[in-house]
Amino acid sequence: MKSIVTGGCGFIGSHMVDRLLAEGHDVTVIDNFSTGRIENLKHHEGNQHLTIVEADICDQEKINNLFVGIDWVFHMAALADIVPSIQRPDDYYHSNVDGTYSVLRASQKAGIKRFVYTASSSCYGIPDSFPTNEEAAIRPEYPYALTKRLGEELALHWAKVYKLPVVSLCLFNVYGPRSRTSGTYGAVFGVFLGQKLAGKPYTVVGTGEQTRDFTYVTDVVDAFYTVASSDVVGERFNVGSEHTYSVNRLVELLGGTEENVVHIPKRPGEPDCTWADTKKINTVLSWHPKVSLEEGVSLILQNIDYWKEAPVWTSQTIKEATADWFKYLGEK
Questions:
Q1: pLDDT tens digits, one per residue of 168-218
Q2: Catalytic site includes residue 328
Q3: Which of 92, 117, 142, 144 is catalytic?
Q4: Which of 203, 153, 221, 181 shows the shortest CA–CA distance to 320?
Q5: Which of the chain's termini has less CB crowding within 10 Å, N or C?
Q6: Pair 152, 97: CB distance under 8 Å
Q7: For residue 81, what are the contacts with CB-CB under 8 A and spacing of at least 6?
Q8: What single-letter DSSP state applies at residue 99?
Q9: d(CA 204, CA 264)
């Protein structure tokens, strides 16, 4: 089997590469290293079954030949995070929409056998009910969510019109080793782990009672492999932990106490709860997550040195970094 992972030097992508190599695939990674890190695949250095190509997925002339003879495509390349998407919508549209179109066209021309798109639960915005199923209203609150949804619609449209064997997986709050350590204010795990290493207070949004469907990265990768191995086409599936956990519980698992927590203002456009209804993927593909939050946090803490390079956020620097969040998404 021959597979391509776009964004394969990134967080989820690098774990997907691990799984594919373990399953005996020849893997080609396409990454422009805007957020991906070559260090994420350093443990495969010298592996003749892995090829890493530095390229922009929008450059069809450069990437088209890479898809010839490929069986499976896992499209994970994307720009993430809320605030930069508000500040740089052109970049996000180019990467997440134009990039998806480019990869779909290359896959179509090459006649690949499976195409799995990485969708985001942020497309649901602030849902009306929990757990949230695949039929929920699509209400993106910010450009990142919108561009990921537009990419998903493109992929599913290619399945309908061009019979490309596409499946989309809608991911909820993925965490685990190698999650991003960039200078951009983003996912809670990176923020908290940087603060823990520096001995600084955890910056908890609002009361911390809000809950998130924290899903461990190897469970997500298993869902990708399971759906690629199936004959399902043209469907979208939620992928989550089958639970929802409070931010306060996460702080507790990381060793935090009331004494080393500071509370920062609740932000517009964020739901009080994210929680995937996974009945569809449970029923159709017999997929279930295996890693509990307690187990996942323990695994992260065993590899916490990875976050030594992560920025250490404070209430003030977060306020400065999220000013545009409040400016554009706040109540009018």
A1: 999 999 999 999 877 788 889 999 999 999 999 999 999 999 999 999 999
A2: no
A3: 144
A4: 203
A5: C
A6: no
A7: 144, 184, 185, 186, 187
A8: H
A9: 6
Q: Total domain count for the chain?
A: 2
248 shares its domain with 295: yes
What is the enclosing helix (H) or strand (E) of 248? helix 247-253
With respect to residue 143, please indicate whether it lies within any of the assigned structural domains.
yes
Q: Which domain holds residue 314?
A: 175-213+244-274+291-329
pLDDT digits (tens, 9 = 90+) for 88-115: 999 999 999 999 999 999 999 999 999 9
Q: Are residues 31 and 125 in the same domain?
A: yes
CATH number of the domain where residue 135 is located: 3.40.50.720
pTM confidence score:
0.97
Nearest of 232, 286, 231, 228 to residue 1 by alpha carbon: 228
pLDDT tens-digit readout, 125-179: 999 999 999 999 999 999 999 999 999 999 999 999 999 999 999 999 999 999 9
> Which residues are CB-neighbours of 292 under 8 A, at least 6 positions away?
241, 243
- Say which residues have a Cβ less than 8 Å from residue 268's Cβ, sequence separation at least 6: 141, 325, 326, 329, 330, 331
Do 201 and 126 have their domain in common?
Answer: no
Nearest Cα neighbor of 54 from 32, 75, 86 is: 32
